[in-house]
Specification:
The complex is a heterodimer of chains A (about 475) and B (about 450).
Chain A lengths: L3 H12 L3 H9 L2 H9 L6 H6 L3 H9 L3 H8 L4 H10 L2 H10 L2 H10 L2 H11 L6 H4 L4 E5 L4 H11 L5 E8 L5 E6 H6 L6 H4 L7 E2 L4 H11 L3 E5 L5 E6 H19 L14 H28 L1 H6 L2 H4 L1 H24 L8 H31 L2 H31 L9 H30 L2 H11 L1
Parallel strand pairs in A: 1-2, 4-5
Antiparallel strand pairs in A: 2-3, 5-6
Helix pairs in contact in A: 3-5, 5-7, 6-8, 8-10, 15-16, 17-23, 20-22, 20-23, 21-22, 22-23
Chain B lengths: L2 H11 L2 H10 L2 H10 L2 H9 L3 H10 L2 H10 L2 H10 L2 H10 L2 H8 L4 H11 L6 H4 L6 E3 L4 H11 L8 E5 L5 E6 H6 L6 H4 L7 E2 L4 H11 L3 E5 L5 E6 H19 L15 H28 L1 H6 L7 H25 L7 H31 L2 H31 L8 H24 L3
Parallel strand pairs in B: 1-2, 4-5
Antiparallel strand pairs in B: 2-3, 5-6
Classes of the chains: A mainly alpha (about 475), B mainly alpha (about 450).
């Protein structure tokens, strides 16, 4: 992040069209220029971009959100726009076009040079959230039968515009992916060797229709700078680079966290949404849970007789429900995240479920005893304490089990495990917890009401506080 | 994963030829995954079948226990060679995981000069730039020519973590510029590095938090970021693959902390030790229980009202749960917003106000819904009215509190995710129940 006074200075220099501005802009990183650009009034932004070469301007625009990008480009003439587009990488142009009205995109598309046009046409057909939508076609490839020397000069020649020249992909004459070489290996190899002799044939690649999260995971798992994208016949179509992968991972992480809290995912930015937009994302699971909690109410309704005779039972409803919900959400978090980062493979499912259930039971026993002691001191009712300890033990064990099991089941059914949101799981747990609590309470406290004088004592206590 | 069964079978039958084909077909990262499931003895057979390059890559991937077992069970000379070939940040992480005695044993396999570097790396906190960096970077004096640099690069390449960025330093080791391999290759041969390097170098201080490192790498789309000390002397680099790991780790941390679990980076989500798991979660659960006993106290205070109209208790669960849900949603949005930079932490009031507006709308929708249900279920208009009003208040307050708690932690210099879920829920339960019963006694004139 640039210091505030630098931003002010740069703004000043540029808006006054000072000569220093040209030099300054040439030395600044595009991401930093983009930051300054964000602070400039609409209407002056085009002026700013005109101060730099069109290739630099393209780099700066690539750093800006596609929707903001569009607004800036509207300030420029079409000729200027085309010039900048020519310098942009293809995947970024696609992002931009997807934000534009179709008519405008088509008009611009037709004015682009033929090779760019062809590539774009093909990419536009692919879904946005797959490898195809994420990839760029600006990469370096060489044929398997050329020499190292020839390959190096190919890299020099075609590398100028490539997104990365650090991985060189080796193809046959039909562009089937044969192997891969790093630039490091290429420049340290003997110049007269054939590429096919030194290339790696174990190439990690992804299919063009692979979901973007999986593409990002592949790059992260193998520690790659880029991954090649191929079609069914193993023909090389493009590459996805590590910087795009990082963005995808961040997007998907946000989606997971939001889904877990019962917020429906949407493309639009967090803060630009209106109150109504933010509400819409959240209201769905809330209404489901509201209806679910009516079942909890129904459970209490079924036991009103118990409650009427011993009001103190109600005092512990919040504590039991909340603890069940907390423990269940913790298990849920472990389970959803374990699946997302692949730390939880199919192989250790059973172990994991068993471990969580036992952890829940242990928590239940500890919390149960703690609570029953407090309850005894407070209410002087041994049977109520007994009911509490047992309910806590069983309900926390079940809470863990439900929290951990639901995402795993969804995953097996090929539904995104994060859909099992916290609110949803909490609602189910609330219902089970209340059933367990009232069942134990009725069993133990009914027994006592005929044989010991505990109830009168407790009644006077109950009204007291 | 039936691959493991097949692999076990091959190892048991000692079918070395088949083992070799299997290895040839698999990526080292995938081979490393098998190690998780194989017994130590089986792992050793598999490891011994790997050639040197593969062995190094596999070694960098497997967990520290297995690493230790393998390295202490192969020939000493071979083990030394393997460790020398591993990147220094991986070796340092590995040493950090070991007991003192084991650490000395491994250190004895490492050359004296290297030992010093590793000790330095080990002295940095794991969550800082220093803890994440590797010392195997490429740096040239700034007056070297492009041609000489390229030649030197050829010799240095095998040891370096990445050769795609070369850093230029002055005579005191201060970082003055950076050249990408791409620029170096395309530059005139006699040009000194000084002329082709970029002088606007993005860098981090060695004690910066790892989140900051990952954020910079992501922002600028770098493959690596240089790490410097107070005097700008270049100490190491953090590469993009480590940055990705940091991002993922921080997200896991946020998700677990949000639900009130403790987190540390050594933790394996699939690990089987119920007690270890229970312990991580217990503290905040107990805090929440104490809070919820207060909720019980609130009900206790209104038990007369409750005894007069038992139906009041039917809506305790829905009010509590809905408040908790909205609070958790707001907390999730705020925590994530702070992590990705989408939320500006300076204006707490603005953020809370924004959430409050959403809370009012959500409260109105759900309040109406629950009031109607209450009316039809219990046939009592005033009861429906009381429940509805309590709902509006609860959800509005829930949204505000959900935004406030993470922001408060942030301002206090803590991780905003810490136990936001349980804290918000507990506070809300106490307050929500109080509001509910107060409204009910007032409206129903109890």
């Amino acid at each position: 992040m640039l210091p505030k006074k630098d931003v002010v200075l740069i703004k000043h220099l540029i808006l006054n069209k000072s000569d220093e501005a040209h030099e300054l802009l040439a030395n600044l990183h595009p991401a930093d220029i983009a930051e300054v650009l964000g602070e400039i009034k609409n209407g002056n932004k085009a002026l700013f971009l005109r101060m730099m070469g069109s290739s630099k301007a393209a780099e700066v625009l690539e750093e800006i959100d596609p929707s903001d990008r569009l607004r800036i480009m509207e300030e420029m003439t079409e000729a200027e726009t085309i010039k900048i587009l020519e310098n942009m990488s293809v995947d970024e142009i696609i992002d931009l076009f997807q934000e534009m009205p179709t008519a405008q995109a088509n008009r611009l598309l037709l004015k682009l040079p033929k090779p760019v046009y062809d590539k774009l046409q093909e990419l536009l057909k692919m879904a946005e959230d797959t490898a195809g939508g994420l990839m760029t076609t600006d990469y370096v490839y060489v044929f398997s039968d050329v020499t190292v020397n020839q390959a190096i000069s190919d890299v020099r020649q075609f590398g100028q515009k490539a997104e990365t020249i650090y991985y060189i992909y080796v193809v046959d004459d039909k562009k089937h992916l044969q192997g891969v070489l790093s630039l490091r290996e290429l420049i340290s190899a003997p110049r007269d060797k054939k590429i096919s002799e030194i290339m790696h044939t174990k190439v990690v690649s992804v299919k063009v229709d692979e979901y973007q999260e999986e593409v990002a995971r592949v790059i992260s798992r193998y520690g790659l700078l880029a991954v090649p994208v191929v079609n069914e016949e193993n023909r090389l179509l493009g590459i996805v680079t590590v910087d795009d992968a990082m963005e995808v991972l961040e997007e998907e992480d946000t989606e997971d966290i939001h889904k877990m809290a019962g917020i429906s995912p949407e493309e639009d930015e967090l803060l630009t949404t209106t109150v109504w937009g933010a509400t819409k994302k959240r209201v769905f699971w809330l209404v489901i849970c509201l209806l679910g909690e009516m079942i909890s109410g129904k459970v209490i309704d079924g036991y009103t007789r118990v409650l009427e005779s011993v009001v103190a039972i109600a005092f512990f409803i919040p504590m039991l429900m909340a603890t069940g919900g907390n423990v269940g959400t913790q298990s849920l978090a472990l389970s959803v995240r374990g699946l997302a980062t692949e730390e939880l493979g199919r192989k250790n499912f059973l172990q994991f479920i068993l471990g969580e259930t036992l952890a829940g039971l242990q928590l239940g026993i500890i919390c149960g005893f703690a609570v029953s002691i407090v309850a005894f001191v407070w209410q002087k009712n041994a049977d109520l304490s007994l009911a509490l300890v047992l309910s806590m033990g069983v309900s926390l064990m079940l809470a863990s089990l439900i929290g951990v099991l639901l995402p795993l089941i969804l995953d097996l059914l090929h539904i995104d495990p994060a859909v099992a949101s916290g609110p949803f799981v909490t609602t189910i747990i609330d219902i089970t917890t209340l059933i367990i609590y009232f069942a134990f309470s009725r069993y133990f406290i009914d027994l006592i009401s005929v044989s010991t004088p505990c109830i009168p004592i407790f009644k006077s206590e109950g009204v007291l506080v | 994963m039936n691959g493991v069964e097949e692999l076990r079978d091959i190892i048991e039958r000692q079918d070395l030829k088949k083992l070799q084909t299997l290895i040839d077909e698999s990526h080292p990262v995938d081979i490393a995954q098998y190690f998780d499931e194989l017994s130590p003895q089986e792992s050793l057979v598999l490891f011994n079948a790997l050639d040197f390059d593969n062995a190094v890559q596999v070694l960098e991937e497997i967990d520290s226990d297995k690493k230790y077992f393998v390295l202490t069970n192969v020939e000493k000379a071979y083990a030394s060679k393997l460790i020398a070939a591993m990147s220094s940040d991986d070796v340092a992480d590995f040493l950090g995981d070991l007991e003192e005695k084991e650490k000395q044993q491994i250190l004895s396999l490492i050359e004296k000069t290297e030992q010093k570097d590793l000790e330095d790396l080990l002295s940095y906190d794991k969550n800082t730039a220093g803890g994440r960096m590797t010392t195997e970077f490429i740096a040239f004096p700034k007056d070297l020519t492009a041609k000489d640099a390229l030649n030197k690069l050829g010799q240095l390449a095998p040891d370096a973590e990445t050769i795609y960025y070369c850093y230029a330093v002055d005579s005191e080791g201060k970082l003055v510029g950076v050249v990408s391999l791409r620029d170096l290759i395309l530059a005139p041969e006699q040009a000194p590095i000084e002329e082709i390097m970029k002088t606007d170098v993005k860098k981090v201080h060695v004690l910066s938090h790892q989140e900051e490192v990952a954020r910079l790498i992501k922002k600028y789309g770098f493959l690596a970021l240089p790490v410097v000390d107070d005097n700008d002397v270049l100490l190491g680099i953090v590469t993009v693959d480590d940055a990705i790991m940091v991002v993922e780790e921080e997200t896991t941390e946020d998700i677990l902390k949000l639900s009130g679990s403790d987190f540390d980076e050594k933790m394996d989500l699939g690990e089987f030790s119920p007690w270890a798991r229970a312990k991580r979660r217990l503290p905040w659960i107990l805090v929440a229980i104490v809070g919820e006993l207060l909720s019980g106290r609130v009900i206790n205070g209104f038990s007369e009202a409750l005894q007069t109209i038992v139906a009041l208790s039917l809506f305790i669960p829905v009010l509590m749960a809905m408040g908790g849900n909205v609070g958790t949603q707001s907390a999730a949005i705020t925590v994530r917003g702070l992590a990705t930079g989408g939320i500006e932490p300076s204006s707490i009031a603005k953020n809370i106000f924004r959430e409050a507006k959403v809370g009012v709308v959500l409260g109105t929708i759900n309040g109406l819904l629950v009031a109607i249900i209450a009316y039809f279920w219990q046939g009592e208009v005033l009861l429906g009215f009381a429940v509805g009003i309590a709902m509006v208040f609860n959800l509005t307050f829930a949204a505000m509190l959900g935004a406030f708690i993470p922001l408060m932690w942030y301002k206090l210099g803590h991780d905003p995710a810490v136990a936001s879920g349980p804290l918000v829920t507990t506070l809300l339960d106490v307050l929500g129940l109080f509001v509910y019963f107060s409204t009910a006694t007032w409206i129903l004139k109890l």
